[in-house]
Specification:
single chain, 10 strands, 4-stranded antiparallel β-sheet, alpha+beta, 2 domains, disordered N terminus, 9 helices, about 25% strand
Length: about 300
């Protein structure tokens, strides 16, 4: 009996030692493996299925879902996939950008792309809510990334992809000024490879004019575009490109105590463009357009002339 017990004891001990040694060997081997930065092509093994997949394929599984109200496990999965694709966020940044929407959206060239929208909500007063938007092609290649303010003391109440007459599919962001309500709408479209604001409006314009009081820093900036680039957009045959140029003209034309050098440079470009007689003529023409969107935007831009 004693011999049998000893045999069992030594057998179990040997087996455990073998398994422990195997685990340690594989663990050390994994640590010594050269680090490869996460790219879309990097393959990740799904523990549940054993099949290989990529962060992009993981993200595709959550297309058109409400990313704000996912269960805890799904939320963690989406967050890890996004970190793998675009890089982890600065750990010192507060509040963090949280995923809200992932969907297909066409650009002004008719190309079908993907848009990933994340929000850093308004937490403190004074303060602002921010959006971080990345654009991808259908293979998951990153085309652009922007993060920007959605308005001083403004809280976001909703966002979705909407299809609008003459404008096509846009990112519609609903917001409200946190002191006294005053709901507002912000529409963004993909112009080329970048997200661009194409329409701002207060639901109750009597409260105040969005162009008159809003921080001109709303939306992404385009320092790479010249005055000539904006004039070409203003004269484009594409309605969305025209709208983007009108928003740019309408929101950055005021002289103000801006500390941001980029904002000052943009304001200087606007003033230069507005000094052109052909631009005045074009604004008048657009303010009489039969397209309601163009007409409203042109009148708003002209009002602040």
């Amino acid at each position: 009996m004693r011999v049998a017990r000893r045999t069992v004891f030594f057998t179990v001990t040997a087996l455990l030692t073998f398994l422990l040694g195997l685990f340690v060997t594989r663990f050390i081997s994994a640590l010594q493996r050269p680090h490869v930065p996460y790219r879309l092509a990097q393959r990740v093994v799904c523990e549940a299925t054993g099949f290989a997949t990529t962060p992009w394929q993981v993200l595709l599984k959550f297309e058109n879902q409400d990313l704000e109200n996912l269960d805890e496990q799904s939320s963690r999965t989406v967050g890890e996939a996004i970190d793998a694709i675009i890089g982890k966020q600065d750990p010192n940044r507060f509040p963090r950008f949280e995923p809200r929407l992932f969907s297909k959206i066409p650009n002004t060239r008719g190309e079908v792309l993907y848009i990933l929208v994340e929000e850093a909500p308004l937490i403190f007063i004074p303060g602002e809510a921010k959006l971080r938007i990345h654009i991808f092609d259908t293979s998951g290649n990153l085309l652009s990334g922007d993060d920007f303010s959605t308005g001083w003391r403004t809280t976001l109440t909703g966002m979705k992809i909407r299809s609008l007459p003459t404008l096509g599919k846009v990112l519609a962001v609903e917001a409200a000024y946190c002191l006294g309500g005053s709901p507002s709408l912000q529409y963004y479209a993909v112009v080329g490879k970048r997200i661009a604001p194409i329409y701002f409006a207060r639901v109750n314009p009597k409260h105040w004019d969005m162009y008159e009081y809003e921080d001109p820093g709303i939306g992404p900036s385009f320092p790479e575009l010249s005055v000539a680039d904006w004039e070409r957009a203003l004269n484009s045959s594409n309605t969305v490109e025209v709208m983007a140029a009108l928003v740019w003209l309408g929101r950055t034309n005021r002289d103000g105590p801006w500390q941001n050098p980029d904002a000052k440079a943009e304001a200087a470009k606007v003033q230069q463009l507005r000094s052109s007689g052909s631009v005045h003529k074009r604004l008048l023409e657009l303010s009489q357009s039969e397209d309601w969107w163009v007409q409203a935007e042109a009148k708003a831009a002209s009002k602040n002339d």
